[in-house]
Design goal:
Largest sheet: 9 strands, mixed
Distance between the termini: 43 Å
Number of helices: 15
Strand content: 15-25%
Strand order of the largest sheet: 3-11-10-2-9-5-6-7-8
Helix content: 10-25%
Oligomer: single chain
Radius of gyration: 26 Å
Shape: globular
């Protein structure tokens, strides 16, 4: 039967192209560096990755987009990220075609196509390709995973979430994880994937399946059980500079990188390990890395459970596994090391001394990696983890941000081979490879929408020949003004305005940035693996040709305006958010994503609660955010309490000077935020009378976001609890009756502060 060129939804699939089509498992990790897995010379144990390389082949010249949502869109569609309208992360989308943050129907996902060929499809973990204003209970739902071809989804929609108290969905339904000290999201993901495969065996054993298993790990916050972090005690004591050197030697000894490769130097404006003289701070920085390492090994171990289930079900032999070790390079967003990653994203300055002081109140170093913190390691660890390359995640010009290892294992179809595949490939090549393996001609039309041509190419030609000649001749890169162009062994690039390890300095420079003034570099990467020999001065004519090709590619792929992902930073009033200025809620309102909820923590507002209290009332009246930061109003044994959790560094708290009697009451919380750089004031009234001895002063306003995935809840605090006062009683449901919660924004205009497009990817 000839393959169809047009797809229309039918009761029966068009046909299964091969007699014995393989199952397909795509494993995509988050924020992992090229020099971190021990499989390839790093020092973090990844037994599953190593096993798969023993059973397959590996690629050392495979590329991502340097940032999350764009990489995922390119992976799923086989198109360049701007063609899939995903030039930046979902939260910072704007009204240019390449930056809309909406995967269009003209770039069907591999799940949509395969489902029409008889495949059963599932997605687990992080999604991050749904517009933030479409993630509420009112939808629309056509851009959720189940609207993009996945029969089943279990995971979260945002760019990150707590591993202990994640904001989960099963298909379209919100799911609350158990309040259990043994719970961890990545373990839950493995269990759910195993159950889905068993259901598949029971209900559709004659059908192949596609599984997209994409944990939020190891994106921040770095959350893992203490025993996993303790495996690495003492292993990083000599710091990131020495780690980078050791890994470089390991990579050469393994033959993972060319023997002539040069080791990239640390950026001049990044702190050296020897610059840290205080031993207490060194202990802090070491522990942050130990936690990260344990987190990565734990994640790989959970992936191993999924692989083992393939064996248990007798289907491993004919399952092709793509294990992509990161959707971009290691992340420098922890800046100088932090217990609260959103401090930097909100441009709130802090010192290590302040971080350590706050950490002491949470339990000291043992609190790192627990639900009490939102920790991320020092940017130096990320830079070293991207060895042997320069730079980190968010930099699209240099390979530290874009080059991620990949292993492909298919016992029935690929003979294991330890020779690294060094052909230049990109994440947009995964979908075309799958189509090629299955003998599918990409459809010209899907569900009535004419399809854009694929930008990726098949990698199948590399399966049997490690030294096959490159077939990918051109590939452009762009993320927030950082950009590059690959042409047949040559690479031209320019760093752009964004410095991932110095967010504050980046923000200062955005208003004056002119992409036309950026200085370009030129590398012959077939001979210069790590971009260390800039040939721009020696080959000016070639550089000009490549710059022109970049402009042509950018125009064709909807990447203009260059740096469009930074638009919201200069024009924050245009970011996606709620169009409303007043709301009426009741106890049925829960799980309202922060990006669609009233901005109680950053704008002047009046909250009026009509409530019936029990005597000695307990429970949350409303809460916005989570343990890493947020606002909560709650009753505690009759006392009315308020807390503004300023990203763990400060907690602005107050309590009524007497218990509130049972019965019907009107409670008002009146917040005044006149200027983002001035303290805010909060007055609380019950039945018209102030109940605090003096207004609450909020010394530092969180002007961007408290979290990536936490929510606004009435009558409870779902997810990670805002206040430590009731953390051990969470979700601390209110024991009275909340009739209405009315919120009115009272400021003349919304207050915003430019932010990097970094916190939610």
């Amino acid at each position: 039967m000839d393959p169809p060129t047009t797809m229309i939804r039918r009761e029966e699939p068009n046909y299964i192209p091969n007699e014995d089509p393989p199952n397909i498992l795509i494993i995509l990790l988050d924020d992992v560096g090229f020099g971190q897995p021990d499989t390839f010379g790093g020092e973090i144990h990844m037994p599953t990755l190593s096993r798969l390389w023993d059973e397959g082949i590996a690629y050392n010249t495979f590329h991502t987009t340097a940032i999350c949502s764009p990489t995922r869109a390119a992976l799923l569609t086989g198109r360049n990220h701007h063609q899939a309208q995903s030039g930046t992360i979902a939260e910072f989308s704007v009204d240019w075609d390449g930056y809309l943050g909406v995967i269009p129907k003209t770039t069907a996902t591999v799940a949509e196509v395969l489902s029409e060929y008889g495949y059963k499809t599932s997605a687990f973990g992080k999604w991050h390709n749904t517009p933030t204003n479409e993630t509420t209970a009112m939808g629309p739902f056509d851009r959720w995973p189940t609207g993009h071809g996945f029969d089943y989804f279990y995971g979260f929609l945002a760019g990150e979430t707590s591993q202990y108290e994640p904001r989960l969905y099963e298909n379209l339904n919100p799911i609350e994880p158990p309040h259990d000290e043994t719970y961890h999201l990545t373990e839950d993901m493995a269990d759910k994937a195993i159950n889905w495969m068993r259901h598949h065996r029971s209900y559709s054993p004659d059908k192949p399946f596609l599984m997209y298993w994409a944990p939020g790990a190891v994106h921040g916050p770095h959350h893992v059980f203490k025993e996993w972090a303790d495996k690495y005690k003492g292993k990083f004591d000599d710091g990131w500079d020495e780690y980078q050197k050791r890994v470089f030697q390991n990579q050469k000894a393994l033959g993972w990188i060319p023997v002539e490769a040069q080791l990239a130097t640390r950026p001049d404006d990044m702190q050296a390990w020897d610059d840290i003289e205080d031993e207490e701070e060194r202990d802090f920085q070491r522990r942050l890395m130990e936690v990260y390492a344990g987190f990565l090994e734990h994640t790989d171990t959970q992936a191993g459970k999924v692989i083992s289930e393939l064996d248990n079900l007798g289907i491993r032999d004919n399952t092709i596994v793509f294990y992509i070790v990161g959707d971009n390079g290691a992340s420098a967003e922890g800046q100088e090391g932090t217990i609260s990653e959103f401090l930097a994203q909100n441009l709130i300055p802090s010192t290590i001394e302040e971080q350590l002081e706050a950490l002491d109140e949470l339990g000291g170093l043992d609190a790192l990696g627990t639900p009490k913190t939102e920790n991320m390691y020092h940017a130096g660890w990320a830079w070293a983890g991207d060895a042997p390359f320069r730079y980190t995640k968010l930099v699209a010009s240099h390979f530290g941000g874009t080059r991620n290892p990949m292993v492909i294992s298919w016992p029935k179809g690929i003979t294991p081979d330890k020779t690294p595949r060094s052909q230049f490939h990109h994440v947009n090549d995964i979908a075309p490879t799958i189509y090629d393996i299955l003998g599918i001609t990409p459809p010209e039309e899907v569900y009535g929408f004419k399809q854009k041509a694929l930008d990726g190419i098949s990698m199948k030609y590399t399966f049997d020949d490690a030294n096959a000649e490159d077939r990918k001749k051109v590939q452009y890169f762009e993320n927030s003004g950082s950009r590059g162009i690959y042409i047949d062994g040559w690479y031209a690039c320019t760093f752009g305005p964004q410095i991932p390890w110095n967010i504050a300095k980046s923000a200062e420079g955005f208003p004056d940035w002119d992409p036309n003034e950026d200085v370009w570099e030129l590398y012959h990467i077939t001979e210069d693996f790590t971009q260390m020999e800039n040939l721009a001065a020696q080959e000016p004519e070639l550089l000009e040709v490549m710059k022109q090709v970049f402009l042509e590619e950018a125009e064709e792929n909807l990447a203009f305006p260059i740096g469009g992902g930074l638009y919201v930073n200069a024009n924050p009033e245009d970011r996606i958010g709620s169009p409303y200025t007043s709301w009426t809620f009741d106890e049925s309102t829960t799980r309202m994503p922060e990006f669609t909820a009233p901005s109680l923590g950053r704008e002047s507002n009046l909250v009026t609660i009509d409530v019936d209290l029990e005597e000695n009332a307990d429970g949350v009246l409303y809460a916005l955010g989570g343990s890493g930061g947020g606002v909560s109003l709650f009753m505690d044994n009759g006392i009315l309490k308020y807390e503004y959790n300023m990203l763990l560094l400060d907690r602005y708290k107050a309590a009524s000077n007497a218990p509130i009697d049972g019965g019907h009451h009107t409670i008002e919380v009146d917040t005044t935020i006149e200027d983002l750089y001035s303290p805010g004031k909060v007055v609380i009234r019950v039945d018209g009378l102030e109940v605090l001895d003096q207004p609450i002063t909020i010394e530092t306003i969180v002007v961007g976001a408290f979290s990536a995935s936490e929510t606004f809840d009435v009558g409870t605090d779902l997810g990670a609890p805002v206040s430590l006062d009731y953390a051990d009683r969470a979700p601390f449901e209110f024991d009275g009756t909340i009739n209405t919660v009315k919120v009115e924004l009272t400021s003349d205009e919304s207050h915003f502060l430019p932010l990097l497009p970094a916190p939610l990817d």
